[in-house]
Write a structure and sequence with these properties.
The protein is α/β, with parallel strands linked by helices and 302 residues long. It contains eleven helices and ten strands. The N and C termini lie far apart (65 Å). 29% of the residues are buried.
């Protein structure tokens, strides 16, 4: 069977640096000493068939958003392989929105980034504005928006770019119930069209009624994948137990789980040093270039 999405022993590790200088040294000279890494996702393996709606459940900090960002190709796995047969689109609060641009300008920018032509953007612009329903704020900079308005705009743009794979990361957790229902109605249209949907939410009720399957991830590890009602029931039983234990017991439990998410990594190879220079580190380089240029200009007497 051809799967729409497949994760094969996927690991996402984030280096733990005590100082920014350590990160810069590793960036330019490689990892010459042991580095502590946080494993946000550990050996994740799952398959999703075309047309399935799959929920991802788990406590805060369990790796749900890390998985959604890898599904959306925003970040790459540290280890393992991800196969995605289609073009994904992530819907998260303010995901991909430029704070300094207006809502209208963000519509044009994000649609362009999704490969839409000027004609297609013009044809869909009014539908996006109507769906977002944020009034005159559409002409205001996004930095002035509430979280609810950001979510409305982000959702409206994403669902009108006609994505092949839709990833919803807590986008329905803000705003009023009327807008949430409008979003669910739109998602049901996508389901009827046979699109693949990933639904990340803390609402067990929404997940149980809307999803075909659920993946339960717990502190970076996938516990189980199966029929939605069955997995949601198991997850709810766990959260009920977790909420009933004392604060001290919760703290001890969380500490024990987190300890299993750290590892010591050491590598001196040129290959791994090159691999480290990726999209996550471009921001570091970009931030120091203006400082270097300014220093050179000062030395030259400008």
């Amino acid at each position: 069977m051809d799967f729409k999405v497949e994760f094969k022993n996927v690991v996402k590790a984030f280096p733990m640096h005590a100082k920014q200088s350590e990160k810069l040294l590793k960036l330019f000279f490689g990892n010459k000493k042991q580095t502590k890494e946080f494993l946000a996702v550990k050996n994740a393996t799952f398959k999703v068939e075309p047309g399935k709606t799959v929920g991802i459940a788990g406590l805060n900090g369990s790796g749900k958003s890390t998985i959604s960002n890898m599904l959306a190709k925003i970040i790459q796995p540290t280890e393992g392989e991800i196969i995605i047969n289609g073009e994904p689109s992530l819907i998260a609060i303010s995901a991909g929105l430029n704070n300094n641009l207006s809502g209208l300008e963000n519509i044009e920018l994000k649609c362009m980034m999704h490969g839409l032509s000027k004609r297609q953007i013009l044809e869909r612009k009014e539908d996006i504005i109507e769906f977002a329903d944020i009034g005159e704020y559409i002409f205001q900079p996004v930095k002035n928006y509430s979280s609810g308005m950001r979510s409305r705009l982000g959702f409206a743009i994403s669902v009108h770019t006609d994505p092949d794979i839709l990833i919803i990361d807590e986008a329905l957790s803000v705003g009023d119930t009327t807008f949430a229902q409008k979003c669910l109605d739109k998602l049901n249209e996508f389901k009827a069209e046979g699109k693949t949907i990933f639904f990340i939410s803390h609402s067990a009720g929404q997940m149980k009624t809307f999803c075909d399957e659920v993946i339960w991830i717990h502190y970076g590890e996938i516990i189980e994948q199966g029929e939605a009602a069955e997995i949601v029931k198991k997850y709810q039983d766990f959260t009920k137990w977790f909420n009933e234990i004392s604060r001290k017991e919760k703290r001890i439990y969380k500490q024990k789980m987190l300890e299993n998410q750290y590892r010591i990594h050491k590598s001196n190879s040129k290959e791994n040093r090159t691999k480290y220079i990726n999209r996550e580190n471009i921001k570091v380089i970009s931030s120091i270039i203006p400082v270097i240029i300014l220093g050179v200009l000062l030395l030259m007497g400008y």
